[in-house]
């Protein structure tokens, strides 16, 4: 795309000369490729310019004055619209050219896209909640806390099992002790009964012996 600047090299108007110099100087400062087309020395250029300026952009007398700016055959504007674009940092948009990266106009275009599309605006302006930023940390803390709770519950379960086991052993031991005591008492009773039976038998034998002796004594006395 070629930027065409129509100007009059031999214009007698100081104002027109100044405007032409402003446009050309600013384009050179921006390092924009452009072509100067003189309408003062070339009737064809004059006629082409007058025919391609839109009717609604022509002055009341119908004769547009230089400088007039085109991008190929597309009309960009005159000095007044160029000046407004320069003040608004939108010269590249005015010329129909993409702004170079890092330029003020590129940054402005990016902001305009952000506002228009909304997607980037949400990403740029919407603050991410703390919960989402720290979501992984909170999840890890919850997992660690859950693992600690499970471990504590397992330890409590083991302690309860140990306590129940000790209680069961004590109960078993307590059950065995009375049984042993009962057996010992029974054995002692049996031994005592056997002793009493032995004593009774001895007493009966002694009594029989005494009776026999008494009978023998009586018989002897009778004789």
TrEMBL record:
Region annotation Disordered: where it falls in the sequence: 117-223
Gene3D superfamilies: Glutaredoxin
SUPFAM superfamilies xref list: Thioredoxin-like
GO CC entries: cytoplasm
Residue ranges with Acidic residues bias: 148-166, 177-223
Domain of life: Eukaryota
Compositional bias segments (type: Basic and acidic residues): 130-144
Residue ranges of coiled coil: none
Family the entry assigns: Belongs to the SH3BGR family.
Name of protein: SH3 domain binding glutamate-rich protein
């Amino acid at each position: 795309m070629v930027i065409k600047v129509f100007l009059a090299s031999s214009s007698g108007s100081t104002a027109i000369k100044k405007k032409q110099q402003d446009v050309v100087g600013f384009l050179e400062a921006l390092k924009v490729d452009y072509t100067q087309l003189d309408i003062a020395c070339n009737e064809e250029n004059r006629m082409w310019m007058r025919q391609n300026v839109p009717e609604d952009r022509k002055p009341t007398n119908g004769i547009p004055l230089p400088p007039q700016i085109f991008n190929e055959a597309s009309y960009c504007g005159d000095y007044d619209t160029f000046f407004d674009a320069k003040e608004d940092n939108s010269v590249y948009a005015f010329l129909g050219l993409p702004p170079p990266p890092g330029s003020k106009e590129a940054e402005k275009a990016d902001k305009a896209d952000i506002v228009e599309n909304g997607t980037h605006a949400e990403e740029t302006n919407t603050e991410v909640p703390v919960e989402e930023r720290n979501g992984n940390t909170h999840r890890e803390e919850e997992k660690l806390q859950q693992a600690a709770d499970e471990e504590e519950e397992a330890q409590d379960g083991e302690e309860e099992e140990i306590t129940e086991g000790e209680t069961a052993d004590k109960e078993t031991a307590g059950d065995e002790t009375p049984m042993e005591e009962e057996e010992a008492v029974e054995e002692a009773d049996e031994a005592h009964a056997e002793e009493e039976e032995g004593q009774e038998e001895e007493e009966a034998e002694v009594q029989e012996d005494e009776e026999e002796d008494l009978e023998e004594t009586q018989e002897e006395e009778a004789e």
